[in-house]
Amino acid sequence: MKKEVKSVLWLFFWLFTLTGTCFASQSAHLDTGDTAWMLVSTALVMLMTLPGLAIFYGGLAKRKDVLNTIGMSFVTYAIVSFLWILYGYSLAFNGDISGIIGNTAKFFLNGVSIKSLSGTIPEYVFIAFQLTFAAITVALISGSYIERMKFSAWVIFTILWFTLVYIPVAHWVWGGGWLANLGALDFAGGTVVHINAGIAALIGALLLGKRKEPVLRPHNLTLVVIGTGLLWFGWFGFNAGSALAANGLAGIAFLNTNTATAVAAIAWMITEWLSTGKPTILGLASGAVAGLVAITPAAGFVNIKGAVAIGIVAGVIPYFMVSVVKSKFGYDDALDVFGIHGVAGILGALLTGVFADPAVNGSAGLLYGNPGQLWTQVLAVAATVIYDAIATLIILVIVKAIVGIRVSEEDEYAGLDASQHGEKAYNLGE
User: Which domains are assigned to the chain?
Assistant: First the structure.
């Protein structure tokens, strides 16, 4: 009898030890492969803003405004980099207050150490990765405001918009806020980044009014193509990096991103060719960016067929938005931030609710028997649009009251490089 009791006790001991080992293996642990991939992804997304977006926007601007245009992206990255560690990260990703915002516990990264983990990567790496998302979102807006906005106004706008719009929406969707709890899908930034930036761009364009020379006259299409290539390259970190691990989900997000972008560029080219008789290189670049935007919320939720479908839609509808609708309504969105980022972002967010394949990441869309997901996406888009539009309008009114938002007519004709910075981009022949 004693022998049997002893055997049972030994059995319980080994079961307890084994169970403890299993639980320990499931706890958070550092994965060096995931960490290496996320460090690379972070650098790729930084590249999207500097130099990618800066060169892309700079090439599209007039020659007399190219430095100011590049400078708007440059200063935005610097400002957001500091504000993110000061309070942005904590309010977006730490804790939750009524589904609206995070808490202040990690202001200035208080409590974060080299041993802190976020999943399988160091928390510092996750902080840096999310910082790059915040920076490019604000920088994207500048494309609508160029060639007429005071540089001082842009600096103040950057601080206020990042704080009052980007941080709350990022928390709603990615930080455990109310849209996340509702089940809204946004793999890498359809709502948080592109709809957010696109709506702010439209509101600002309406408030600023038309430029004195409102025609889009790119001073250097070569820079535009180089910028597009850098954006496409960096976007692999943007989308595939949003898997937060070096795994199969990152792989399909990578391939979906490339496929949708290529298809959108082709679709835009064909649509423009049929409409105007000539396929422009600017059109190819615009189609590629529209495809990158549209696949962003869906990259880790759809299969390759869904990516192709999203690419086709992204290459056609935004084309008509920038070539027909904008002219009809007469607003001056200088570099078509709303027409491409806003519209393609909305399309991508909604189509995620249609094409999400549960075999990819567990979430089913309309075509896989879950029509409710599409309705959730509609609600997420609507909430982002309404909040962003109201908050952006208030912010711009405040900025206007503080420093004014538009340069003088003389400064605009002279060019913002000279009037705002006392410089010029090219000194050839001097």
Answer: 31-416 (1.10.3430.10)
Are 85 and 127 in contact by the 8 Å Cβ rule? The answer is yes
Is residue 74 over pLDDT 70?
yes
Residue 7: pLDDT band (50, 70, 90) is very low
Nearest to residue 339, comparing CAs of 355, 356, 323, 362?
Answer: 323
Tell me the DSSP string of 329-356: HT---TT-IIIIIIHHHHHHHHHHHHH-
Contacts of 368 (CB under 8 A, 6+ apart): 356, 357, 358
Evaluate the CA torsion angle 305, 309, 310, 314 in order and state its sign: positive
Tokens found for residue 188: 């890498």
∠ CA 169-173-177 to the nearest 5 degrees? 85
- In this predicted structure, what is the pLDDT of residue 110? 98
Q: How far apart are CA 120 and CA 93, in angstroms?
A: 16
User: What is d(CA 55, CA 243) in angstroms, rounded to the nearest whole number?
Assistant: 28
- Please give the helix or strand (H or E) that residue 401 lies within, else none: helix 371-403
Residue 265 is predicted with a pLDDT of 98
Question: What is the C-alpha to C-alpha distance for residues 320 and 338, in angstroms, rounded to an integer?
Answer: 13
For 172, residues 6+ apart whose C-beta sits below 8 A from its C-beta are 99, 100, 178, 179, 180, 383
Which residues, other chains included, contact 115 with Cβ-Cβ below 8 Å and sequence gap of 6+?
A: none
Q: Cis check for the bond before 51: say yes or no (omega within 30 of 0).
A: yes
Provide the residue type at 230 as one letter: L
Helices (H), 108-244: 123-145, 151-161, 167-174, 178-182, 196-208, 221-240
What are the tokens at 245? 């691990």
pTM of the model: 0.93
